[in-house]
Amino acid sequence: MAWTKYQLFLAGLMLTTGSINTLSAKWADMFSAKGCHGDAEHSFSHPFVQAVGMFLGEFSCLAVFYILLCHDRRSPEPRMNPGQSFNPLLFFPPAMCDMTATSIMYVALNMTSASSFQMLRGAVIIFTGLLSVAFLGRRLQPSQWLGIFITILGLVVVGLADLVSGHKDDSHKLSDVITGDLLIIMAQIIVSVQMVLEEKFVYKHDVHPLRAVGTEGLFGFVVLSLLLIPMYFIYVGNFSNNPRQVLEDALDAFCQIGHKPLILLALLGNTVSIAFFNFAGISVTKEISATTRMVLDSLRTLVIWVVSLALGWEQFHGLQVLGFLVLLTGTALYNGLHRPLLAKIPWCAARMNLEEDSSEAERERLLNDGRVHAGEDT
């Protein structure tokens, strides 16, 4: 069935804003400007300030939710399901995971390329799959285990590409590239914990996705904004690139923005893009399918890589292409994107139906045990 113009718009919006999200953050990292008290010009290295801006973008989804809800209630036939009432504190643990992982990833983005950053984020399916087996009692299909194995192989290839490029790249030291890649992998472990927490304690309350994203954004924005105060006094030495060598110097960030307003444009691009990306992603799932959303999310890695090459932010490496293709294959297998192709083969279709019946029986058993909520489709 052909897509409507609105569906094409949503798909384009998700792909564009998802790419801008990473590219704008990397663009901000590439600026240099003077700081406070006559400091010499230095690079803009403020990952925690960037993370605050990201959470502000997520928080704005809460405003979008209430605007849509008010508009829907004024219509003759309201169709929007606001979800049931819930305790907002349920979102606090996953929000803290999100805050920690996002901050680590922005630190890592300072150390490695935008394309490697986006590719290595694919590691989340490895840890999410393993944790869902351990804590949610889920049984993974053979194709999902194969997807996890192929994803691990893809991460190794991307890591090798970074090792090769680290010897030739003047913008990043090899030690920084390796550290950045390891930090991204570490962040994906925390993201997978966040996903498991959301699935086990939050989604069973039938919370609207925009409301869920906005509530987590609120907690992340408030807590991380308050943490910027002690971070201003925590000395970390050479680990930090700001003049005072503290964990985060928010005042220095504001002074640099004042001296070079383009930095503010990059930060606003990150904040606005994350808000529209969340809205577009939810809308794509609703209007088209979750599979389409997964495909678009994978395609933005390609967009980020191509744009980075076009802007001269990084050099072409054949190993990176191979790593991307391997990661894409692993993600596709894990998320079941191969099923529409196999469904056209009669004996494969019969086998898939048996697997789905078995999965449904397992799901019913878990529902009766009270370990998952009705309507969950993962």
Can you summarize this structure?
With 378 residues, the protein is mostly helical. Helices cover 72% and strands 1% of the residues.
Describe this structure in words.
- The protein is mainly α and 378 residues long.
- 72% of the residues lie in helices and 1% in strands.
- Strands 1-2 form a two-stranded antiparallel ribbon.
- Helix 11 runs antiparallel to helix 12.
- The longest helix is centred in the middle third of the chain and has 29 residues.
- It is globular and about 65 Å long.
Q: What are its keywords?
A:
single chain, 378 residues, mainly alpha, two-stranded antiparallel ribbon, globular, disordered C terminus
Q: Report low-confidence residues grouped into runs of 5 or more.
A: 357-378
Q: Given the C-alpha coordinates, what overall shape results? A: globular
Radius of gyration: 22 Å
Query: Which class of secondary structure composition applies to the elements?
Result: mainly alpha
Distance between the termini: 24 Å
**Strand order, biggest sheet?**
1-2
Largest sheet: 2 strands, antiparallel
- DSSP, total strands: 2
Helix and strand run: HEEHHHHHHHHHHHHH
* Approximate helicity band: over 70%
Contiguous helical run count = 14
Q: Which range does the strand content fall in?
A: under 5%
The average pLDDT value, as a whole number, equals 83
